[in-house]
Amino acid sequence: MVVEISEFKGNKILVLKKTADDTYPFSFGVNKAKLILEHLDDIKKFVEDNQK
Fold first, then answer.
1. CA–CA distance, 5 with 18 (Å, rounded to integer)
2. Strands (E), the chain
3. Which residues in the chain show pLDDT less than 70?
């Protein structure tokens, strides 16, 4: 996994890529990062319940 800090419209964002050549990275800013951290247990349960 590749993790980068970038910028979008003047705001810092975190960019997560499966590989350096990933065409569709996952990116989010501080507000969404806080939301993810607040609900990390729910996200983990969702993955456990729905992965194949």
1. 15
2. 2-8, 11-17, 26-29
3. none
